[in-house]
C-alpha cells in the first residue's frame, strides 16, 4: 500500500492505482477541471466569495488595528511604527539601544520567534527594524506576543554590557 496526498484529498492504495490516479491528476491539472471551474464560478456568481472576502477583511483589519494599538500602548518607548496602508505587516523601527540580534536571542528563549531579515535603506545601511505580521494569529495571541516582546526588551535593557 502506498499513500499520496492531492489537493483536497488523500489516497491510500496499491502502487499501480496511485500511479494511474497521479497520471490522471496531472492530465487534469494541464487541461483544466471543468467541474471545479464551474463550482468556483457559481461561488462568485452567488456572492459567496465576495461575502467571505468582506468578512475576512473585517477580521484582518481588526487584528491589524489591535496589533498597532498594542505597539503604541506597550512598546512606544522602545520602537515606532505606523499603521500599514495595505497589508497586514507593520514595519517596526526599534531604538538603537535595542540591538535586534540580541533581542532575537532573548525573545526565542521566551518563546517568540523574530525574523532574521536585515532591513536596509536605499543607501544599503542597516536599519534597526523588523517587519511584524499579524494576519495568522488572533487578538489574544497578538497580545501575548507583544507581552513577550516587551518582556524580552526589558530583559535585554537590564543586562549588564
Short description:
This protein has 161 residues and is α+β, with helices and mostly antiparallel strands. It has helices at residues 15-31, 34-45, 48-75, 100-109, 139-158; strands at 2-6, 9-13, 79-80, 89-94, 119-120, 126-127, 129-133. The chain starts with a strand and ends with a helix.
Give a verbal description of the structure:
The chain has 161 residues and is α+β, with helices and mostly antiparallel strands. It folds into two domains: 2-32, no CATH class; 50-158, Aspartate Aminotransferase, domain 1, CATH 3.90.1150.10. It has helices spanning 15-31, 34-45, 48-75, 100-109, 139-158, and strands at residues 2-6, 9-13, 79-80, 89-94, 119-120, 126-127, 129-133. A hairpin with a 5-residue loop joins strand 5 and strand 6. The chain starts with a strand and ends with a helix.
Amino acid at each position: 500500500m502506498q499513500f499520496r496526498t492531492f489537493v483536497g484529498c488523500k489516497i491510500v492504495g496499491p502502487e499501480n492505482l496511485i500511479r494511474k490516479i497521479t497520471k490522471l491528476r496531472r492530465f487534469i491539472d494541464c487541461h483544466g477541471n471543468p467541474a471545479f471551474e464551474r463550482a468556483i464560478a457559481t461561488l462568485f456568481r452567488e456572492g459567496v466569495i465576495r461575502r467571505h472576502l468582506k468578512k475576512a477583511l473585517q477580521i484582518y483589519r481588526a487584528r491589524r488595528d489591535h496589533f498597532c494599538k498594542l505597539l503604541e500602548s506597550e512598546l512606544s518607548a522602545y520602537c515606532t511604527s505606523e499603521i500599514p496602508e495595505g497589508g497586514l505587516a507593520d514595519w517596526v523601527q526599534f531604538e538603537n539601544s535595542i540591538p535586534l540580534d540580541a533581542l532575537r536571542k532573548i525573545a526565542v528563549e521566551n518563546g517568540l520567534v523574530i525574523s532574521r531579515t536585515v532591513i536596509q535603506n536605499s543607501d544599503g545601511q542597516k536599519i534597526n527594524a523588523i517587519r511584524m505580521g499579524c494576519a495568522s494569529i488572533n487578538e489574544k495571541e497578538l497580545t501575548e506576543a507583544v507581552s513577550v516582546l516587551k518582556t524580552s526588551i526589558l530583559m535585554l535593557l537590564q543586562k549588564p554590557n
